Amino acid sequence: MKSYLKLFIPILILSFLVWTTLRSWSSIEGKLASANYLYLFLSLGVLVVAQVGAAYLWYRLLPKGKISFRQSFPIFVISNFGRFIPGIVLHYVARVYLAKKKGIDVKDVALSVVLEVYYSLLGSAVVSLLAISYVNKYLPFSQFISIIFIVVILSVFFLSPVKVLSIARKMPFVGNKIPTFEVHLPYKIHIVLAIWTAFLFLLNGAAFYLISRAFDNIPISNLYVFAGLFSASWIVGFLTPVAPGGLGVTDLSFAYLLLPFYSFSEASFLSLLFRFGFIMSEGIVFLLVSLFNGREKMKT
């Protein structure tokens, strides 16, 4: 039943966004006619760079010296395509399997995946803080609650994963569900990886800003707000159990958060276009990896 929900709900949400877009297609068609498509190509380039950056993050979480970035990059790219298959976490399984073939212990790969999730949530939470002052204008958040969010997120940012997981295991209800891992990560490396992940979410915000800039004269200051709003919607999608890879849920959440800037039809269109850009960037990187691997095999 859960597998069917993971298939049905993303399709239902994406269909709703498409329907909402088509409902006001005449106004959107006018924007398409006058769009500056150079910004769309630039956005795609930024998303490709973000894909490479995400692959590098995972590489840095693997045991040092076991594998080169050149070897880990195809593993990350190929396994990533399993994110949107409902019912199973195929991309993690594929990553463990492919890395094991390169001689990396299964426990080490599993730990790298856990830490990748940890840093992704941390980086997105940090960048989402950029939108707090903006969100407070439209949602009934008190300043006190905003301060609590900032203090908690920044505290986690400056604590090592070892300490955070140790504290989390002492929490009622969820503590006993957190697996025990031996994490050997120098504090300086932790800070670098946390900053790096936050930078990747800023890149995603920049990519969306370029998409919006293709249709409207949006001030550059909105880049940070867009990055914060996207990061918040990414967290919602990631933590939703019936949305593989956040598909659908992230897009709908992002569209709603964009309402102060756009009508819901325009926000739905931009959110879908951003999702399409993600898929296109993954496809481009996958194609480049496939071509490179094909040339390497021909040489041997």
Describe this protein's structure:
- The chain crosses the membrane at residues 7-25, 37-61, 73-97, 117-135, 147-169, 189-211, 223-247, 267-292.
- Its main location: membrane.
- This is Lysylphosphatidylglycerol synthetase.
- The chain has 300 residues and is mostly helical.
- It has one domain (36-299).
- It is built from 13 helices and no strands.
- The protein has helices at 2-23, 25-33, 37-61, 69-80, 90-101, 106-128, 132-136, 143-158, 161-169, 187-215, 222-239, 249-257, 264-299.
- The longest helix has 36 residues, at 264-299.
- The chain is globular.
A few lines on this structure:
With 300 residues, the chain is mainly alpha-helical. It is 75% helix and 0% strand. The chain has one domain.
List keywords for this structure.
single chain; 300 residues; mainly alpha; 13 helices; 75% helix; globular
| Fraction of residues in H or I helices | over 70%
Question: Total number of helical segments?
Answer: 13
Estimate the mean pLDDT confidence. 85
Unreliably modeled segments? none
Q: End-to-end distance, in Å?
A: 47 Å
Number of β-strand runs:
0
Secondary structure category: mainly alpha
Biggest sheet statistics:
none
Q: Determine the strand fraction and express it as a percent band.
A: under 5%
Kindly provide the radius of gyration, computed on alpha-carbon positions and rounded to a whole number of angstroms.
20 Å
| Apparent shape | globular
Note the run of SSEs as H and E: HHHHHHHHHHHHH
> How many discrete structural domains?
1
